[in-house]
Design goal:
Keywords: Membrane, Transmembrane, Transmembrane helix
Protein name: Stage V sporulation protein AE
Number of domains: 1
Helix content: over 70%
InterPro entries: Spore_V_AE, SpoVA
Number of helices: 6
Pfam families: SpoVAC_SpoVAEB
Number of strands: 0
Largest sheet: none
């Protein structure tokens, strides 16, 4: 049943993004920003973790999870280290994903040639 709910919740997040494109005519940058900020706000109110517990990968794979990770890491480190923890916590939690995206992007750019 967890696969079903992961599909439904992840699909709903994607549908929301698609509606932003089609109905509201938002650019990809605006849509991305709104989804990341939405995940951050939901985590700030303590609502994103229960969603992850319920939907699993359906809530952790979409871009809203990035906002959740930023706020979650910042809040955890702020409890330990104060105001400095806010900044370091965001980078500590998300650094592996960002680093791997950069590394694989560079490898892809070196291996493949753009068509033009």
């Amino acid at each position: 049943m967890i696969f079903f709910w992961a599909f439904v919740v992840g699909g709903l997040i994607c549908v929301i993004g698609q509606i932003m494109f089609d109905v509201f005519k938002l650019s990809p940058a605006h849509t991305l920003t709104i989804l990341v900020v939405s995940g951050a706000i939901l985590d700030g109110f303590g609502l994103y973790e229960p969603l992850i517990d319920f939907a699993g990968a359906g809530a952790t794979v979409p871009i809203t999870s990035f906002g959740n990770s930023l706020v979650h890491g910042a809040m955890q480190e702020a409890e330990k280290h104060g105001i400095i923890g806010v900044v370091t916590g965001m980078f500590e939690v998300t650094s592996s994903g960002i680093s791997s995206a950069i590394i694989f992007g560079v490898i892809g750019a070196l291996i493949f040639k753009p068509k033009g």
